[in-house]
Design goal:
Layout lengths: L1 E3 L6 E6 L5 E6 L4 E4 L6 E4 L18 H16 L5 E5 L14 H15 L9 E5 L1
Parallel strand pairs: 1-6, 6-7
Antiparallel strand pairs: 1-4, 2-3, 4-5
Protein name: OmpA family protein
Organism: Formosa sediminum
InterPro entries: OmpA-like_sf
Length: 133
């Protein structure tokens, strides 16, 4: 399995409100992607987990589509206990790592793993493999 999640490296999108005032909204650059390499499970949500610049705490609220995707992942992993998951934490080189982790990507991947645990996805020692870009 492969999870890809977003950071603060999002594109800016300008929205014009009904009053004609431009409002700047951050749009997720990378979708929340989960793919079983065997092809038996696939999820691609256009929204994602987001973090403030140099942050390691997930920005809330988390979108309903991401929450629904996490629920589907939970059900799939419950029915496939031998499957592993790789969580890739993204960051840009200009961001500062103030966490105890070796880099910001691992810190963010850990935040996602912790969120998964709160949603009932539990990790054995061999279930989660860390990946960092």
């Amino acid at each position: 399995m492969y999870c890809k999640r977003c950071t603060s490296c999002c594109k800016e999108e300008t929205i014009v409100s009904e009053s004609g005032v431009n409002i700047s909204k951050s749009a997720t650059e990378y979708s929340f992607l989960i793919q079983d390499f065997s092809g038996s499970f696939s999820l691609n949500v256009t929204d994602n987990f987001n973090f403030n610049t140099s942050g390691i705490v997930i920005v809330k609220p988390i979108s309903k589509t991401v929450e629904q995707g996490v629920e589907r992942l939970k059900n799939y992993l419950s029915n496939n206990p031998l499957k592993t998951i790789s969580i890739t934490g993204l960051y840009v080189k200009d961001e500062q790592n103030t966490s105890a982790f070796p880099n910001l990507g691992i810190a963010r991947a850990n935040a996602i793993k912790s969120y998964f645990v709160t949603k009932g996805i539990f990790f054995s020692a061999n279930r989660c493999v860390w990946g960092v870009i």
